Amino acid sequence: MILALETSCDDTCVAVVTQAGELRANVISSQGIHDRYGGVVPEVASRHHLELLDPAVDDALTRAGISLDDVTLVAATRGPGLVGALLVGLSHAKALAAARELPFAPVDHLHGHVAANLLEPGGLEAPFLCLIASGGHTLLSRVDDPRSYTVLGATLDDAAGEAFDKGARLLGLPYPGGPALERLAREGDPGAFAFPTARGVEGLNFSFAGLKTSLLYRVRDLAGEGGPSPVDREAIASSLGREVAADLAASYQHAIVESLAHRCERALQQTGLRRLALGGGVAANGPLRRRIGALDAEVTVPPPELCTDNAAMIAAAARFTEPLSFPAYLGLDAYASGGRLQGTPA
Ligand code: KG4
Ligand code: ZN
After folding, report:
1. pTM, two decimal places
2. Is the CB of 287 under 6 A from ligand 1?
């Protein structure tokens, strides 16, 4: 039994997965307190992880019908993410492992998003392409071996989820912006406004900064002279009117979806691979799932709770990570950026 913890951002996550890759428990405790600040406040997130981890571990063990004595491997996200938040989960997991002298697997968060597609039953077989689009990352990778992934392209500026979050903020919607923007967009016309899809960006890289700026100018034009303050949600919403806001949301979402889908199409053509998997919070987006699902490829999208941050994916990656035996992991540190894989073939 693998017990995994994930605390790279604001979700406190604990999961139990068997060594064969079968999910037994997937506890996700969303802190839900960052909305009032319009984004995640790192210190607040860390303090909440401290409070929530213990009950979340108990909850996961209970749901899995096991006790700590049944755990044979402990895993945790080591990075990338908010260092303070990561350190809480990493230290907690190391302590759980050390108390029983269990082996410990440090997992790369992005490897986790890829590995969400490897849970059984129905785990994807390599080779496959994997688009990871989250609040912190947007990248297209190639998976030839479940122990690693090769980055084929990544965002040159904002992540797709960040584009959703910033766009939502400009439209007066709450954080996290993706789900709120998707809901509003259902009432709007995706063809109402033309937003850039960065098709000009070469290769398999992405860019969303121009799109966000373009929405900012549109909102300013539509809101009229002076316009509301970008932090005054109610003023933005009332000056735009619900119909126009919905059209803007639908058109903006359409541009993000097209931009992501276009790179996937290009990658399928360039690599000749037939299987494509999605991961990251943005993969929970309905229009994106439908658009990518219609591509000429074998598309796998994990259920939404395995797309947004979760610890099941960390346990899934731990199955393919070389574990460290006690006490070698005690001094292990977290990292904020970049990806680091263990057990990657030379
Ligand atoms: O993977 P994730 O849970 O955390 C990170 O590692 O960043 O992704 C969170 C991101 C947020 O930016 C959120 O707005 C976006 O995923 N997101 C969505 C949807 N659900 C979450 N974006 C678009 N549509 C959604 N339904
Ligand atoms: Zn993530």
Report:
1. 0.89
2. no
